[in-house]
Amino acid sequence: MKSLSPFITLLCVAARISAQTPIDASGIGGGSWTWVYGSNPEPSSLSLHWTATPSSDTIYSLDSDGLFKAATSMANPAEWLEATIPGPGVLHFKAAAYEGAKDVYVGVNGSQVLSIPAGTAWNSYAIALPELTNTVRWVVTPTATTQISVAYLDQVWFENTTQVPVSISQMNGGNVTVSPNSETFESGSIITVTALPNDGMEFSGWTGTFSSLSNPVRITIDQPIQLIPLFLKKLDGSIVGCADLNIMTGPENGWVSSDVRASEGTNCLTNQGSSLVEGARMWCILDGPLTFTFDYYVSGSTMTVYMDEVLSMSDYPFIVGPEDPPPTWKTKVLSIPVGMHELEFRAWRFPGATSAESSFVDNVRISRPSIYSGLIERTSDGYAHVDWAGWFYDEYYPWVYDYTNGWIWVYATDTDFTWWDVETQSWYWSDPDVYPYAYQYGDDWVWIGMNAGKRSIYHYSSGSWN
Questions:
Q1: Furthest CA-CA distance within the chain
Q2: CA 323 to chain centre
Q3: pLDDT tens across 157-184, in order?
Q4: In whole angstroms, what is the distance from residue 138 CA to residue 136 CA?
Q5: Neighbour count for residue 446 (Cβ, 10 Å)
Q6: Cα–Cα separations (whole angstroms), residue 25 to 22, 182, 230
Q7: Which residues, listed in sequence order, are joined to residue 207 by a DSSP beta bridge?
Q8: Do residues 140 and 151 lie in contact, with contact meaning Cβ atoms separated by under 8 Å?
Q9: What is the pTM of this model?
């Protein structure tokens, strides 16, 4: 599965305060402390800022008191809201970060302690504050192509306690249970956290204060904990013509099956991501060496392909006039080297694009180089011969029909090869220097050959033939 960057890193929030404007925070329950807002760097004016919505705004408010929201433009790249709160204790609040922004970062005394990913709906959070006067800052930053970013904050309250807070995010794609169920625990307590993926989704790990693949996970509480479950959607590889390909996509703005258009058959995979939303991702893990071939169609959007986070392909057919050629299906061939590699497709629509078209992928083909390539000349009927292996037919490689062994499935590197034997239902290892001697997994060394036109195997562990 795709490796995802952690949402939590200890970063320093900008120490320079460029503009400070007092603000009334009574609408969110935190009116007893000193509140200011500003931006960094300082714009010429603060036309877009943290402000209170009317109490009648029931769409965005969690309660009748109202809500603060942040709107940030590219000319105003880091909008922040700050409160001065004496500790010790636990600060509770609810927040949301809607698409278009980067993560909403929360810092305490200049160090980042919490990250709320863009696209996160209303969630409860709790952070511990030490025994001093603490500066708590909520920072909203847009992406490079975003003109407006929106975040929300409500129901801020402070609990004077020495207990340790635990924040468990409820992410799209599934739910989380905590046992015992609480938001704070005595230091040294042990809790069990379980991720429950929705239908069609699968759990792929925890991020936050620490990373883990365990589910459920048992945690000893010795520090404030923030835990974020990662839920992914598994796509059916047969949609793109490669049934044994394990394809994953995110729960939101991900790739889906489509019968709108296809290069082959009736279905393909498509992403018609929202404008200004970059990075609708689809990925698979490939075990090279192999050749990865696919058809793609891009219209009104950009599609990029990365292998191990390195750009391998980019296509953005920007049509500016009737003289430009219309988009068409294209074919791309990628060489995947030896070893495990992650191949990732990313797509996003042009800002302001009105076309319903987007990125499409279809007709995926995977082929592995035959271990016999370059060593043989085939007969007119497709059979070939090498001294060490004898006669074989490898047009459907890695499935090979071998005159001695019958149908086998071969996985090979430059110097050796492993094969699955259909007749014996066993794995074997050998190489050209030792064959017809081979190691049979679960047994021992064997000798493979023909006797009176029939395959014979001698097992050295038992001293017997079969």
A1: 96
A2: 39
A3: 988 766 777 888 777 788 999 999 888 7
A4: 7
A5: 21
A6: 9, 27, 33
A7: 228
A8: yes
A9: 0.49
Is-contact 300 358, C-beta < 8 A?
yes
> In 272-327, at which residue ranges do the beta strands (DSSP E only) sit?
280-298, 301-307, 310-315
pLDDT tens digits, one per residue of 78-130: 788 899 998 778 899 988 887 666 678 899 999 988 888 877 878 889 888 87
Give the strands of the sheet with 445-451, arranged side by side.
Answer: 383-386, 390-393, 399-402, 406-412, 417-421, 426-430, 437-440, 445-451, 454-459, 464-465
Strand order in the sheet with 174-179: 174-179, 190-197, 217-220
Match 């082959």 to its residue by tokens. 264
Q: Are 126 and 145 in contact (CB under 8 A)?
A: no
Give the Cα-Cα-Cα angle 242, 243, 249 (nearest 5 degrees).
85
Domain with CATH 2.60.120.200 in the chain: 21-162, 236-367
In this structure, the chain runs to a length of: 466
Cα angle vertex 336, ends 407, 312, to 5°? 150
Neighbouring CB atoms inside 10 A of 147's CB total: 14
Topology of domain 21-162 in CATH is Jelly Rolls (2.60.120)
Helix, strand, or coil (residue 27): helix
Q: What architecture is domain 236-367? A: Sandwich (2.60)
Residue 53: closest CA among 36, 39, 40, 65: 65
A 10 A CB-CB count for 10 gives 8
Phi-psi region of 75 (alpha: psi -120 to 50; beta: other; left: phi over 0): alpha
Phi, psi values for residue 239, rounded to 5°:
-60, -35
d(CA 435, CA 213): 41
Rounded CA separation 228/8 (Å): 10
Helix, coil or strand: residue 238:
helix
To which residue do tokens 């739910």 refer?
A: 175
